[in-house]
Design goal:
The protein folds into three domains: 2-86, DNA polymerase, domain 1, CATH 1.10.150.130; 113-293, Orthogonal Bundle (hpI Integrase, Chain A); 301-397, Ribosome hibernation promotion factor-like (Double Stranded RNA Binding Domain, 2-Layer Sandwich). The chain contains 14 helices and seven strands. It is α+β, with helices and mostly antiparallel strands. The strands form two sheets. Strands 4-5-6-7 form a four-stranded mixed beta sheet, with helices on one face. It has a three-stranded antiparallel beta sheet with strand order 1-2-3.
């Protein structure tokens, strides 16, 4: 009975998240099970003393649980007994002075900026719905520093593209506004267009599964771990690593510690659009210390022409990004002319793309018709990359 009342107190009076409440539930019922099954006693709050709790902690250590986990379970039990004292169910807590095992403080894990740039600007993600979604998961966590639970809870209505702001709901239902950069805005548009085109069920959540339902925190963890596993030098692979990577990048690029804390939601006084230590305009300036916010120099002049239709901003951004990647194969590209047109509207394969590159001492050309402009551009840029490599090799032999 008392455990249930305590969990209700956490939910309705303290506004704890479902994940936090579930952790308390598991810890308390594990202790209850130890009293009843291991000690063979009735679980009576008035009979519990420090000796029984120490015995439980010792059994956890014997089971090879980490000191961090054991201390968290002890903290859950301390909170429970404090609640019982306030409810006058017991006179004093039998464990308020009890200390757990010492925690080892590991060095913080983070992804180096160059490794993140390689992942986000490379071909680590497909252009399918799931590929775009997984990329957005990684980029949102790294570009904004939000928590996994905050990412799960984002709705389309939380995005303000006009002001480039994202509203997230953090611990104890406190909300804060986070700026986002142009590259993330482009990815958001691209993902949402693909999602709305391919997924029939509209749930209102930003990040969803293929059935249209809200993504789970466990699935977020799986996506992040899978992608970060491609970085062999990284010892730990979790969403929190990306959160720490965000903070590290901000600090390394000159941001103030208090400002970074407020962006991360660590300030106990922050609520929706109100920041106590730092004004919101200052926070927006600070946010541009993030390497993803720093504009990259573009040498290539890219012109995009759409025929018989109006190209969306997301499609033009996709074309820009794909064509710009060709510079990694040859630094002598002067300009690119891209023509997108719809041919034979009554057929499936009706999206035609052509790319004409002007390079030093010549021109290169590729054209393709496919089911989508994205697929056509992919094939064109792949063909051009091979042409550029051959051109570069010929230039070396002359």
């Amino acid at each position: 009975m008392w455990i249930g009342l305590f969990l209700d107190y956490l939910k309705f009076e303290r506004n704890y998240s479902p994940y936090t409440i579930e952790s308390y539930r598991e810890d308390l019922f594990q202790f209850k099970s130890y009293i009843e099954n291991e000690l063979g006693e009735e679980f009576s709050i008035g009979e519990i003393d420090s000796g029984r709790v120490r015995s439980w902690l010792a059994s956890l250590m014997d089971a090879k649980m980490s000191s961090t986990t054991v201390n968290r379970k002890l903290s859950s039990l301390k909170s429970f007994f404090k609640f019982l004292v306030r409810q006058q169910a017991i006179l004093t807590s039998p464990i308020h002075l009890m200390n757990g095992p010492k925690n080892k403080k590991p060095l913080p894990y983070f992804v180096k900026e160059k490794e993140m740039e390689k992942m986000l600007d490379g071909d680590w993600f497909s252009e399918s719905f799931e590929g775009l979604r997984d990329r957005l998961v990684i980029e949102l966590l790294y570009d904004t520093g939000i928590r996994r639970s905050e990412l799960v809870g984002i709705k389309d209505s939380d995005l303000d593209f006009g002001k480039a702001l994202l509203k997230v709901t953090g611990k104890r239902n406190k909300q804060r506004l986070i700026p986002f950069v142009e590259e993330l805005e482009t990815l958001l548009h691209t993902y949402m267009e693909c999602r709305d085109r391919e997924i029939e069920h509209k749930s209102g959540w930003l990040i969803i599964r293929k059935n249209g339902e809200q993504i789970s925190a466990a699935m977020i963890y799986t996506i992040v771990k899978k992608k970060l596993s491609l970085i062999p030098s990284l010892a730990k692979r979790s969403p929190h690593v990306l959160r720490h990577s965000f903070a590290t990048s901000m600090l390394n690029n000159g941001a103030e510690l208090n400002a970074v804390k407020e962006l991360l939601g660590h300030s106990s006084l922050a609520s929706t659009s109100i920041y106590t230590h730092t004004s919101f305009e200052e926070l927006k300036k600070v946010y541009h210390a993030h390497p993803r916010a720093q504009k990259k120099e573009v040498n290539m002049d890219i012109r995009i022409q759409s025929i018989r239709f109006d190209a969306s901003e997301a499609l033009e951004a996709f074309v820009q990004k794909k064509v710009l990647k060709l510079e990694q194969y040859y630094d002598g590209i002067l300009s690119a002319e891209v023509i997108l047109k719809v041919v034979k509207p009554e057929t499936a394969m009706n999206k035609n793309a052509s790319v004409n590159l002007k390079i030093k001492n010549g021109e290169l050309f590729a054209e393709k018709t496919a089911d989508s402009f994205e697929e056509a551009i992919d094939i064109c840029t792949d063909a051009l990359s091979k042409q550029l490599v051959r051109h570069k090799e010929k230039a070396k032999t002359k």
